[in-house]
Amino acid sequence: MEADPLSEFDALLASADVDDTEEDDLVQTLASSRTGRGWVIGSVLSAALGVVLVAAALVAASLSPRPDPDPTSYVAAELSGTTPRPDPRQTPYAAPSQQHERPLTDLVDENWVAELSDDTSIPVRALIAYAGASLVATSEYPACGLGWNTLAGIGHVESEHGTIHGSHLGADGVARPAIIGIPLTGETTEAIRDTDAGMLDGDAVWDRAVGPMQFIPTTWAQWGADGNGDGIRDPQNIDDSALAAARYLCDVGGDLTVADNWIAAIHAYNPTIEYNNRVADAAAYYAGRG
């Protein structure tokens, strides 16, 4: 018997304090996707140079013409002179946890990227990272089925693909100015005191999420990746952070072509209904354009 995609989400959120209106909106979104346009599963694209891009994501599908991001929790950091400026190249996380043979920029067809960037408004540099990271994940986790569009959905919600509040991705993939989240003081977030002496986030009191994909320092210490082959794991680099996100999602979610697993993986990345819905909407939109 096929699993009901609502059941796992209900279980995941059973302990959350959710009001009736928000829960009804979630159920309506999921229900409409099951009776109409459905969950997007297994969109496969072949690049001109023979690179196969697997875009397999499970997403709810009630979409506006353009996803409208509102990542108000995050800011492009302009750190004060009294706060240590983050420098990931000086952190204990400099050695890559896993190696792959080629930088992500070498894995994706440039013509495909240029065309899709025009269709989706995803910056070319970010799209290269999402597509390349999905290819590496497909190789390392053959049963995962992670699509580039899921990574793009996360990047859209977290930082508008590295462009939030005046930041931008350079040709090297690094976000400038650095993207640093709010201090995790416990007022509107889980309280997480400093774990990295401010080396990644510039805050020696509280941890903050960092980079285009918004990793907290402890998660980056475990999952940080080297996506551009420079021997450094830099959360402000879109190649590194996209590859880290891809590995994390595949590891915690398993087969992401299963609706329950996709929902659980995104829930593990950020455990809120709103986040899950927004990533789903964006990922479905991108899948429809790809």
From TrEMBL:
Residue span of region Disordered: 65-102
Lineage: Bacteria, Bacillati, Actinomycetota, Actinomycetes, Micrococcales
Protein name per UniProt: Putative secreted protein
Chain ranges passing through the membrane: 39-63
SUPFAM superfamilies: Lysozyme-like (SSF53955)
GO biological process: peptidoglycan catabolic process
Native species: Microbacterium esteraromaticum
Entry-linked Gene3D superfamilies: 1.10.530.10
Domain Transglycosylase SLT residues, every copy: 202-251
Matches recorded under PANTHER family: LYTIC MUREIN TRANSGLYCOSYLASE, MEMBRANE-BOUND LYTIC MUREIN TRANSGLYCOSYLASE B
GO molecular function, one term: peptidoglycan lytic transglycosylase activity
Keywords, sorted A to Z: Membrane, Transmembrane, Transmembrane helix
Top-rank taxon, per record: Bacteria
